[in-house]
Specification:
- It contains 5 helices and no strands.
- It has helices at residues 2-36, 48-56, 61-71, 80-90, 100-138.
Length: 143
């Protein structure tokens, strides 16, 4: 198990390192653009792939905006709202991994389970009332 764990740990380290390298390349590239004066606002950042990757990995608009603002402190148009509009205009959004039929199946199953649970509770309640009624009949002082 220890050997398997070290393989997994190594794979995670490699993935993290790969992401850091891509992130640093992105930062360097856009820092050069920023200093050259060729960049203003999110539209001119040319970072669609970066934003797609962040959204795919469940990064929020707020987190992405914060990262862009840290990378480009003197740039305008990098607010959460700007990122949201940019993602909307480019069709960038986090998609559920479930298809519509799969979602329907999950919902039907959940409704069925809740209905079964409520039915069982109802049956238990009725049984408890019967037991209490029978007990009150058998105890003379309660009648």
């Amino acid at each position: 198990m220890h050997a398997h764990g070290s393989v997994v740990d190594e794979a995670i380290r490699n993935h993290v390192c790969e992401f850091k390298v891509r992130y640093l390349r992105f930062a360097i590239y856009f820092t050069v653009l920023l200093k050259s004066g060729k960049m203003s606002g999110i539209e001119s950042l040319n970072c669609v792939d970066y934003i797609k990757e962040r959204v795919k990995n469940k990064g929020t608009h707020k987190e992405i905006a914060s990262d862009l603002q840290q990378l480009f402190p003197n740039s305008r148009g990098l607010s959460e709202r700007s990122v949201r509009r940019f993602c909307s205009s480019k069709g960038i959004h986090y998609a559920s991994r479930l298809s519509a039929p799969e979602v329907n199946e999950v919902v039907e199953s959940a409704v069925s389970q809740v209905s079964s649970y409520n039915y069982i509770l109802d049956q238990m309640s009725q049984a408890a009332h019967k037991i209490i009624a029978n007990l009150t009949k058998s105890i003379p002082c309660i009648r």
